[in-house]
Fold this protein.
Amino acid sequence: MKELYRIGATATGGREGHVKSENGVVDIEVRMPKGLGGQNDDYANPEMLFAAGYAACFDSALSLVIKKEKAPAGETSVTAFVGIGQIEGGGFGLSAELKVNIPGVSQEDAQALVEKAHQICPYSNATRNNIEVKLNVSNS
């Protein structure tokens, strides 16, 4: 891979600590979510950050595909849901679901555009064959 961009972030304190990007743009406290034994859901957590990154990246990949295909789509939106749970052997794994909306095209065309975006999105390529990613597509 020819690397085009690289950024670093440092975490201290794990899920009960702090995360800061090397350029200072991300500078947040992270806490264990309530579902994993934390006190509340008032702070960011690694799954939330992953969901935000995946949603933004996938929407960009989708925009690229729409532009290339010259599809008459309206403003798209991608909502990413990331789950965490225990897997065999006592470790933990992730799951992801993308809810993608592409107005202005048929449901069939929307599905085809999402499938193409799923092939070029870096997050999709990183997760492929590692975690289950469900794609839910709408065109309204």
User: Anything to note?
Assistant: The mean pLDDT is 97. The first strand starts at residue 9 and ends at 12. The first helix runs from residue 46 to 69. Residues 1-44 form a domain with the N-terminal domain of TfIIb fold (CATH 2.20.25.10).
